[in-house]
Here is the input.
Amino acid sequence: MKTVRTTGNIERVLLVGVGRKRAPRAPGLDVDAEPREPLAELEELARSAGAEVTGAVFQMREAPDPATIIGCGKLEEVKIEAKMRRAPLVVFDCNLTPGQQRNIERATDCRVIDRTQLILDIFARHARSREGQLQVELAQLNYMLPRLAGRGTELSRLGGGIGTRGPGEQKLETDRRRIRERVGKITHNIETLRRQRALRREARQSVPLGTVALVGYTNAGKSTLFNALSRADVVVSSKMFATLDPTVRAVRLPSNRRVLLTDTVGFIRDLPPGLIAAFRATLEEVQEAALILHVTDISSPYHAEQDTEVEKVLGDLGVADRPRLHVFNKTDRLAPEEVAALGQGSANGNVFVSAMTGAGFEKLLRRIDEAMPVDPVVRLDLRVPLSDGRTLALVHALGRVLHSEVRDSHMMLVAEVPESVARRLKLHDLRASA
Here is the structure.
């Protein structure tokens, strides 16, 4: 049985990436420059899983090798590099078939995991609620099921380390039938939790409150923005996928309307389909939202590519045409001249904010107010008896009074109120206009 060396509780890992060569666009041009961003992201994922990244190997290929992805020559280099850096774990920045994983392990004499297994490990670390833990376990079991064939007693060495958290050694060593039974049981439990969540959602929808969902690439600052807008205390971390369980809080808009703000799991490129399916209950909050806030880390040099990945996931969820605001976060990390240039582009509907400093929040809340399709704000001219303190309090509490004066023992008000409140004030309404 191979041993796994660690530095304290931190496991040493070697990263391996594979890029595709492209044909030159014009005579004399070299192939595209080696893309470093994928491995930079993989390094951040590995650190989020609690690893110490000791080095990286990258290879450009015309096409992946069917048996080992990178070919025998490069495998020998990986083996030497891992031994030299004392890294017993090799992480590939792609998805490996069971056969490829076994071939690479035999050739390198190292434990090997792929990008999907690394992400699953991070999810297992951060799942806090019962629902989140069940969803992670379901995704892990579905991932491991086709990899049981041929592993035999090798599974006994998967008892610890990155990529092995969650179901645990005992579940992984059971046969396919036992795992399928466990998958069925977890699926049933998740469906029960989904029905309970649906009941809570119906209870919320009985009150005319719209839901605003925060979505975006992982580590875009969604939770920091959520906390700042709702005064909540959701865990904030620079590590990827710090938020797995959706959190809902009420937020009051400038019109005095209240909306429900939802923080959701971050997206990432090549998000495993099994994860999207397993976290279907969580992502339903996005599907039920009346308005989507797409949060982007404007300070990231790769934010355009990250936005493209978010758009793909939103398309998979069937919400690509949902009303949306694009919120560019982390403007505090930009130079003053860059922030000034961004202000010139705000006319296209984008909102630029800093969740850390609060810059741009006033405009963001105003834009949310304008874009919310649920319970729209209407303007009323009201004539309310001074003795009717309850109605006057209702207008001030749930609406925005633009003008007021006393005439003949009545309070004459011009106010903006939600449509649901306007229906309750119909007896006092002199005229109403959208």
